[in-house]
Amino acid sequence: MPLSLQTFLKNISQVVLLENVWTGLLILIALWIGDWKVGLAAMIGSLLSLLTAPWFGYTKEEIHSGLAGFNSVLVAIALSIFMIMTWQTLIVSLLAVLLAMPFAKAMQSVLKQIGLPELTMPFVVVTWIVLLMNSQFGFLKSTVKLLPLKHVNAIDLTQPLHPIAAFFNGISQIFLVENVISGILIIVAFFVASRWAGVFVVIANALSLIFVYLLGSDIMSLNHGLFGYNLILGVLALAVTFRQLTFWNRYLMFVLVILMTPMFYGAIATLFEPFGLPILTLPFVLVTWLLLLAGRNKPEAKHNATQNTEHS
């Protein structure tokens, strides 16, 4: 397989913190099945980052491993969903995809001083920037209603729970897609990269569904998979990819992610509700940073996202 094609697919697989070309290919197929616009956006984001990453100071190793491009892939996906496409919004969206790379590089330089990877925080911030700037430009439109400044208690416990749909939608929502078939393919993609990744994701997602259901979460939000995707990313980060950075047992990390992520999701969703901004992967980022700092091997331990991930 050509090196450029490998990089193209790894840009997609690194969204879930796994470096594997076949994982990237399966995920891309899953995205096209779930929503062709999302599949196309992922390809555009990956291609743009592949072509321009050297301009932004990324090493060949970072580029080839997919670490330069995964935030761009997510930005492209998010804006394909949240933006109403005109030629103006298309230009801004493409610029945002490019902006994600220097933003990620800058964040990487800052965070490595305290031993943290940037994760998907560049994606979160760049997406917010584009959504917020829309209010100041008449030709930029999005599907997101910003600053409603009104709390609406929308918790509905009367709807039926669809556990199968909730389970697989929680996985496909990592890429902002709600589709059971896509979720199944993405789980297969996890197992292709790492048996631990697949096993941990399946168990964590199931336990999380039970946990948030017992807490009385909104059933429709559960069915749409909104409580699952941040937790899955956290499990992949702390129990699989970055587990060597902490002296804590991977199973302890596994349990903490299951318990903490729904709490962070609920708190952040409430905090952001008056502003109308989507919380995206912010709960995953905050929980992962917190646990990496709390359980690091040594006070001076440092890590940046250029390190090779370990999959076993």
Mean residue pLDDT:
89
Report the uncertain regions.
Answer: 298-312
Strand content: under 5%
Question: CATH superfamily assignment?
Answer: Ammonium transporter AmtB like domains
Rough outline? globular
Which CATH class?
Mainly Alpha
Alpha-carbon distance between the two ends:
23 Å
Number of E-type strands: 0
What is the H-and-E element order? HHHHHHHHHHHHHH
CATH architecture: Orthogonal Bundle
CATH topology name: Ammonium transporter fold
DSSP helix fraction: 55-70%
Rg on CA atoms, Å: 18 Å
Q: Characterize the biggest β-sheet.
A: none
Structural class: mainly alpha
Number of domains: 1
- Put simply, the count of helices is 14
Could you characterize what this model shows?
α5 (70-82) runs antiparallel to α6 (87-111), α12 runs antiparallel to α13 and α12 (229-241) runs parallel beside α14. The chain is mostly helical and 312 residues long. The protein has a single domain (3-294), classed as Ammonium transporter fold, CATH 1.10.3430.10. Mean pLDDT is 89; it is low at 298-312. The longest helix is centred in the first third of the chain and has 25 residues, at 87-111. It contains 14 helices and no strands.
